[in-house]
Structure formats: C-alpha cells, structure tokens
C-alpha cells in the first residue's frame, strides 16, 4: 500500500474518532429532550429504558392526518398520574384475551423486566403535531409484549385505505399489531404481520 493510501486511511480513522463523541453528545441531547417530553406529558413515574433499539416511532395512528408519536418507556405505576397528566391507560393485549381492566392488569408484568415496558402515545394537534404543548390525546399502553417497535400498516376493511399501526416485534415468539379504532375510541391488539 502506498504512503498516500495509508495517510488516507489514517485520516479517515481520525475523522471517525473525532466525530464519534459528537454523535454520542447528539444522542445524549436527543435522549434528554425525549426524557423531558415524557416527564412533561406523562409525569416523573415514567423513565426511558437504557439502550432500547427504537425509543420512538411516528405515524398517523388515529387517522386524522396529523403525525403522532409512540415512545417506549418504563413505569412501575402507570395509573396514578393518569388524572393529573390527562392520559388514558389501555391494555389491548389483555383485552384480546379477556382481561381488559387496566387497573388490575397493570400489576401483571410488574416483576418481569422483559415485558414491563409501556408504550406512550401522543396524538398530535395542529401544525406542531405531537410536539404541541397540548396534544389531542395521550395514552399509556401496558402489557404488550415486545422487544422492539416499528411503524406498520394493515388493512382492516375492504375498500378502505390501510391504517398505521404500532408493530410490536417480539423476536422469539411473534409480531403483533397495536392500533387505534377512532370510531370506538379504543386500542386493539392482534397477532399478525403488517403490510411492508
């Protein structure tokens, strides 16, 4: 290898090493902003899990044309602050199996660290969408088993466009879909794949 080639490789390594702290700093800043948003909208009982693959996803989850957000968080007590911070607690996974009362179901996975993550959903309002100081609605979704979340789409009815869903990816078992029925104002869970 020529000296010019070795210098080019060394320069690339130095640039990568120098840019790495900036990336980490940017990640820390973004995480701090996300933690502040969670605390502002849902209270201090919610924390962001360390090193989660996808801490947030966006999509139009209620079908009103305004961008919404779903954020992965942890909380041992998701219900007590629901009145003060004006969010609804939903357990669509439990409801699918006949155990839909969040007050009772919120204790089911409290001791299992693999499945005690919650999904915080903010329905956006106006031009600021989910960044708005006063969102359209807020939800805490409990007991859904997942290792990661992504945005997906499913067809619910023939002749209707596909809707955006929160795709709950559970790597060892199955993928599932969490979606909002705007007419019934209710969250649903069901196993299965989404449209790509």
Structural commentary:
By secondary structure, the chain is an alpha+beta fold. The protein has one domain. About 25% of the residues lie in helices and about 25% in strands. The protein is built from three helices and nine strands. It has helices at about 5-40, 90-95, 100-105, and strands at about 55-60, 70-75, 90, 115-125, 135-140, 150-155, 165-170, 175-180, 185-190. The strands form two sheets. It has a five-stranded mixed sheet with strand order 1-2-4-5-3, covered by helices on one side. It has a four-stranded antiparallel sheet with strand order 6-7-8-9.
SSE topology:
Blueprint: H1 3-42, E1 56-59, E2 68-74, E3 88-90, H2 92-96, H3 102-105, E4 117-123, E5 137-141, E6 148-154, E7 163-169, E8 175-181, E9 186-191
Parallel strand pairs: 3-5
Antiparallel strand pairs: 1-2, 2-4, 4-5, 6-7, 7-8, 8-9
């Amino acid at each position: 290898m020529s000296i010019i080639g070795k210098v080019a490789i060394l320069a690339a390594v130095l640039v990568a090493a120098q840019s790495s702290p900036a990336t980490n700093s940017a990640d820390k800043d973004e995480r701090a902003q996300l933690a502040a948003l969670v605390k502002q909208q849902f209270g201090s009982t919610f924390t962001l899990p360390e090193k989660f693959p996808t801490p947030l996803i966006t999509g139009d989850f209620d079908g009103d044309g305004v961008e919404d957000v779903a954020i992965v968080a942890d909380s041992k007590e998701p219900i007590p602050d629901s009145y003060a911070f004006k969010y609804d607690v939903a357990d669509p996974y439990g409801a699918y199996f006949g155990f839909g009362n969040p007050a009772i179901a919120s204790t089911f996975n409290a001791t299992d660290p693999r499945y005690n993550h919650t999904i915080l959903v903010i329905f956006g309002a106006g031009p600021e969408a989910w960044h708005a100081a006063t969102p359209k609605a807020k939800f805490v979704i409990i007991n859904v088993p997942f290792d990661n979340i992504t945005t997906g789409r499913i067809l619910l009815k023939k002749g209707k466009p596909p809707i955006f869903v929160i795709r709950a990816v559970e790597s060892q078992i199955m993928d599932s879909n969490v979606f909002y029925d705007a007419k019934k104002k209710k969250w649903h869970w069901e196993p299965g794949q989404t449209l790509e």
